[in-house]
Every structure is written in C-alpha cells, then in structure tokens.
UniProtKB/TrEMBL annotation:
Protein name: Cupin domain-containing protein
Cupin type-2 domain location: 2-67
Superkingdom classification of source: Bacteria
Xref: CDD domains: cupin_RmlC-like
Pfam families: Cupin_2
Length: 164
C-alpha cells in the first residue's frame, strides 16, 4: 500500500501486535523514529523492517510531500480501510474525536504508546464499547463517503493513500 505524507507530518509512537511492517521510501526522504529517539532516514528505494511490538513512528521531515510503501506481514483485513478513513478525514479537515482515533487505530492494528493505550485496551474488553466503536465506524464512513468512494475507486488499482 502506498502512502503520501505531507510536509512536517508524523504520527505518534505506536506499535503493531500482530504483524511486521516494512516501510520502503519511494519518493523523498522518510524518517523512521524509534522509541529511544533513534532515527533512520530512508532515501528512495531504501526500506526498514519494523518487527511486531516495536514502538515507531513514520515522519516526513521535509518541506515537500514524500511517498512510501507499507507492507504488512501477515496481511491484515481492515488495515487499508483504516488508513483510507484516517487520511480522508485529514484531507477533508475533519478533526477526529478521541473515539475516532481509537477506532481507526484498532482497524489498522495500531496501538499508541502510554496511558492512552492502556485506557483503550481496557475499554475494548467491554461489549458495549465495542458496539459503540463500530456504530461510529458506520458514521465515519457516511461522513466521508462521497470523497472516500471516489478516492477509493480511483486509487484502488494502485493502493495509493494520502495524508495531509
């Protein structure tokens, strides 16, 4: 799956429990930040394998958009849907709620580091909370539906994703 990350964009430190993630730079310099502060810079063609449960973040340190590919092993059923919704909300300047963030992270099999993760992990064990999360997923899909469907159909063959 390809991702476009806009200038000075990043994501918080997080980890994936059930898959490894390979990040391969395709256009521009991609920075992988690890929990201890270590940074690895990837130029076009370079790749970095993030093992399961290793805290990391992908950062665009430049002033121009960058592109990279993500490969998850083993593949995950909802990861692409989670990324598409996340990026469509950003592209449409829709500020996600904390619940939205949790839902989209859950779809992507992504877990933030620290207290937020602990709270989310506890809440997820409650049936009513799970029901509420997926009810909210329906609402998010309807909120971004016109753009999401157009974006999804036009990008489906290449798997392109954009984050703004």
């Amino acid at each position: 799956m390809r991702v476009k990350l806009y200038p000075n964009s990043d994501n918080p430190l997080h980890f994936h429990k059930s898959y490894t993630q390979e990040v391969k730079a395709t256009d521009g310099t991609v920075c992988i930040k690890l929990k201890g502060g270590e940074r690895t810079f990837l130029k076009s063609g370079d790749s970095f394998l993030v093992e399961k449960s290793i805290p990391h973040a992908v950062i665009n340190p430049s002033q121009v958009p960058i592109e990279y590919e993500i490969t998850c092993r083993p593949g995950q059923a909802n990861i692409e849907k989670g990324y598409r919704l996340k990026f469509e909300l950003e592209n449409q300047d829709i500020k996600p709620t904390l619940l939205d963030d949790w839902l989209l992270m859950d779809l992507r099999g992504t877990y933030p580091i620290g207290f937020r993760y602990k709270v989310f992990a506890k809440l997820k064990t409650i049936f009513l909370f799970k029901w509420m999360l997926y009810k909210r997923l329906d609402q998010l899909e309807k909120k971004v539906r016109p753009q999401f469907n157009t974006f999804h159909e036009s990008q489906a063959s290449t798997g392109d994703l954009e984050s703004g």
